[in-house]
Amino acid sequence: MTALLSVENLTIAFRGAAGPAVDGVSFALERGRTLGLVGESGSGKSTVALALLRLMPPAARMRSGAIRFDGTDILAASETALASLRGRRIAMIFQEPTAALDPVMTIGDQIAEPFVIHEKRSWREARAAARRLLERVGIPPERATNYPFELSGGQRQRAMIAAAIALKPALLVADEPTTALDVTVQKDILDLLLGLQAEIGMAMVFISHDLAVVSMMADTITVMRAGAVVEHGPTRDIIERPHQPYTQALLDAARMRVPERMAR
Questions:
Q1: Of 3, 101, 139, 210, whose CB is crowded by the most CB atoms within 10 A?
Q2: How far is Cα 46 from Cα 14, in angstroms, rounded to an integer?
Q3: Any idea what the CATH number is for the domain that residue 43 is in?
Q4: How confident is the model at residue 212 (pLDDT cuts 50, 70, 90)?
């Protein structure tokens, strides 16, 4: 099967840094599947996530590599081509919804906006669709007129998920989507993502420092350390038979009991 997303020898450096932030990273992801990208803070996983949508900061420099999404060369694509992909074919959930959501725009309008931009719907139609999406992710539709600061952290994350899946993207990039949430809300968000994935059929790159969380979400796992891939394989193999001491250390930190944690 041809991969929906392929990353080959991706190397990214930041101006003034001693070494690359991402060093020769490669992986592939098929349609409808989930790849878990795991590593400690500073391992380069969030830089990879931003590169997938070519949203890297100005200080970042692409040294080598290729990113291909459903036949499109992401690194060579025009800004017009990228604009048509972002939000429509590839969507992203950020770690901190407070920073990602517009504080002066209602939640409903932020979810409605992709329908207006990409599908040319009227604002009336788009707002009605946004209310249905809010209900779908567990937020009362009447909260559509609220601003981000009027919602709890879990509700803000749910609202961002609603905006991300509005146009049924083929790929969802979820960068630490539950890190700032308490354990109960975290589980609700993970269950919501799994349910939406099954319903929409989207592929997912799920990024976290927590191998326990990743093991519940991913079909395959890529372990990163200091910008490089140190281990990659099916989730069960990584969890039950890690080859690298670093992977074992992540497992120990998660205090995992494999039979209870394994999701697939």
A1: 139
A2: 13
A3: 3.40.50.300
A4: confident
Say how many CA atoms lie within 13 Å of 113 toward its Cβ.
Answer: 14
One domain, residues 162 and 173: no
Q: Which segments of the chain does DSSP mark as H helices, in order?
A: 45-52, 79-85, 97-100, 107-119, 123-136, 153-165, 183-200, 211-217, 235-240, 245-254, 258-261
- Judge whether 133 lies within some domain: yes
Q: How far apart are CA 54 and CA 115, in angstroms?
A: 22
Which pTM value belongs to this model? 0.89
261 part of a folded domain: no
Give the model confidence (pLDDT) of 118-143 as tens digits: 899 999 999 999 999 999 888 999 99
What order of strands is seen across the sheet that includes strand 5-14? 22-29, 5-14, 60-69, 72-73
* Cα(5)–Cα(50) distance, integer angstroms: 14
Angle at 190 between CA 261 and CA 235, to 5 degrees: 40
Please tell me the predicted confidence (pLDDT) of residue 87. 85
Dihedral angle sign, alpha carbons of residues 238, 216, 131, 184: negative
* Type of residue found at 20: P
